[in-house]
């Protein structure tokens, strides 16, 4: 909380005000409270944070949240609602009263609330992203949660890849246990395994052939021999809220020479990227080193080839600070980042290899211990 | 799109501007595109909506989104970024250029973006919630998706309740197949079943005894005989994005007289609520009828007793318009709502029974066909 107080103080404000549900990672980080509907959070400088909750959530919030719950009645909200006749106006009224002075707000505060808050005094946008910066440097407790999620993810990846390895080619598609092996079957098996580990995976990618050339295409239908299959899994551990993130590319059979070359180059790029990571190195430099590597091997970066950034932070969001992209600033010890170079060409296919681990003072503590081999 | 054009036009604006990911239900509704990171959406009056996407998402967006994808380069964003040196500024610059005049924005637009947009012209908040209003009235296609999700949910509920029914009491806890039957075991079985149906359940409630008195307490540990067990399941169908929502309260053994009375009263309240639903009736009247019913039977509404609203809309969010609460306006045919009266007393426990269905011109098309019995 000291860093949030520092931000409030530096902005010349009396309090930090947010309005979000636990779908918002900043909110979950600040409150440790899981809730579907948005709640008002007010942290006055130097005081315990408060959370305005409906009566029905009071006892649960008292038991679960790290902020001090206040009912809507106690907060003044219900009286303001009588007076103002409009929930958003009453919300702004409540926030202003609890804050007691100029407010610092996250850039993501609902615009409607921000505009109404301006009627009560100065509203300063936290352009530095104080909570995001707090979240980017993980505690040992957070690192353990992320490492555990990544271990479950590697086991799920192994299960999916084993299905492809055990399959056989027939009539241009892969068969397993007498049935066509589809993207959906592999996803279902990985998801069911992960659920048993307390992790929920969504939007998982198992994309074969032409579909693999679109980096975020989820993929559907039969998997085919001799074509690249990109698998990208990024489940969330339900209990902790932390994500994992991992990708592999495999071929059952014989890859085209283009795919084999792309895979070799992506593998080298990943090894290079991981070798350069340590606290203090700008994410932009890591991205640039991989762009240079690809360029030297005749692969472009931009509209095709290496079309995304080298990596991103992972935590309560699957994409968060820091960024390993052209705009990425210096890494810090305790950051958790992916290293995921990829190459994508329409008509040929895609290759991506993604590991995740923690940045340390002297290097990279890779949490992903799993083969990067292409051919099954 | 006509209703969005009407809202743009009524506000005297040139375009509607949003910036969100598919975690935002309005965004998913408008674009039908699944994406983790926020994207800029600009709908000019009378024109096709546009979606500004990173290069790596272009091909996928062209294949999947109902808005027309434009790369960041094509949109001008990358040039503005060079000029403005700051992503949020470049984003506002891009939005203003694409809009070409005053903009209508959702109340949830990030405040930082809204403030920057003000530098380019008038920014009008859509206080009427045009997209939310569009979402509240479902098409037959949406109704079918929600009904299918609710059917899977009822089957999962049956599976969970069957585990409790098959259990036996020993030493103050329930045992099933030689092991203690816990909240976690029941949840895991229901979740695994739902996953096989393509549905992801999160924050499911299986709360026993004292925990059942907190309406949103998720519950943990051994389930016990003779105590109320509230089960509340609200999974999301991954493919369609639509939610279901259902609750039951059961007792293995002999409920206390208080719980038996509360259950009878809640059951009557639900039957009453469902019988009064039809297009045109205000949600507030339905809620008030149930408050009156409870009052007549000696149960209060407020800090304890009936502590929440009678129900809520369900769709791409588990809680959306319309509201069956003191502030709820008239229902419309095509709304999907829950009817979920409950009573909660610390020291005694909680009872909630929740069905979901569609509002029709003349009544309520209940999608939940499952026993409401208390005693197993």
Automatic annotation (TrEMBL), chains A, B:
Residues 145-361 form the Peptidase M24 domain. One of its GO terms (molecular function) is metal ion binding. It comes from the Archaea. This is Peptidase M24. The lineage of its organism: Archaea, Methanobacteriati, Methanobacteriota, Stenosarchaea group, Methanomicrobia. Keywords: Hydrolase, Metal-binding. Pfam families: Creatinase_N (PF01321), Peptidase_M24 (PF00557). Residues 2-92 form the Creatinase N-terminal domain. InterPro entries: Creatin/AminoP/Spt16_N, Creatinase/aminopeptidase-like, Creatinase_N, Pept_M24, Peptidase_M24B, Peptidase_M24B_aminopep-P_CS. Belongs to the peptidase M24B family. It comes from Methanofollis liminatans DSM 4140.
């Amino acid at each position: 909380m000291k860093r949030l107080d520092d931000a409030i103080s530096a902005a010349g404000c009396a309090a930090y005000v947010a309005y979000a549900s636990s779908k918002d990672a900043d909110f979950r980080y600040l409150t440790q409270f899981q809730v579907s509907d948005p709640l008002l959070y007010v942290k006055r400088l130097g005081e315990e944070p408060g959370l305005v909750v409906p009566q029905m959530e009071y006892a649960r919030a008292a038991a679960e949240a790290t902020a001090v719950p206040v009912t809507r009645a106690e907060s003044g909200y219900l009286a303001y609602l009588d007076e103002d006749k409009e929930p958003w106006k009453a919300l702004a009224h409540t926030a202003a009263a609890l804050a007691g002075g100029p407010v610092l707000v996250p850039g993501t505060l609902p615009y409607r609330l921000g505009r109404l808050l301006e009627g009560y005094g100065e509203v300063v946008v936290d352009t530095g992203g104080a909570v995001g910066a707090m979240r980017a440097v993980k505690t040992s407790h957070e690192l353990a949660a992320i490492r555990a999620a990544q271990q479950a993810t590697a086991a799920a990846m192994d299960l999916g890849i084993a299905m492809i390895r055990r399959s056989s080619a027939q009539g241009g598609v892969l068969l397993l246990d007498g049935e066509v092996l589809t993207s959906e079957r592999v996803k279902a098996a990985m998801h069911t395994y992960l659920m048993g580990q307390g992790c929920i995976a969504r939007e998982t990618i198992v994309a074969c052939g032409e579909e693999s050339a679109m980096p975020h295409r989820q993929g559907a239908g039969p998997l085919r021999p001799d074509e690249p299959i990109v698998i990208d899994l990024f489940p969330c551990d339900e209990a902790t809220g932390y994500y994992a993130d991992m990708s592999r590319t495999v071929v059952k059979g014989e890859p085209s020479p283009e795919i084999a070359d792309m895979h070799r180059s992506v593998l080298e790029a990943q090894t290079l990227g991981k070798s350069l990571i340590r606290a203090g190195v700008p994410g932009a430099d890591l991205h640039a080193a991989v762009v240079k590597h690809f360029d030297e091997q005749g692969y472009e970066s931009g509209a095709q080839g290496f079309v995304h950034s080298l990596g991103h932070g992972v935590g309560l969001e699957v994409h968060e600070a820091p960024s390993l992209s052209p705009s990425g600033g210096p890494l810090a010890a305790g950051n958790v980042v992916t290293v995921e170079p990829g190459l994508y060409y329409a008509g040929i296919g895609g290759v991506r290899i993604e590991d995740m681990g923690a940045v340390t003072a002297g290097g990279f503590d890779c949490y992903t211990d799993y083969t990067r081999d292409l051919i099954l």
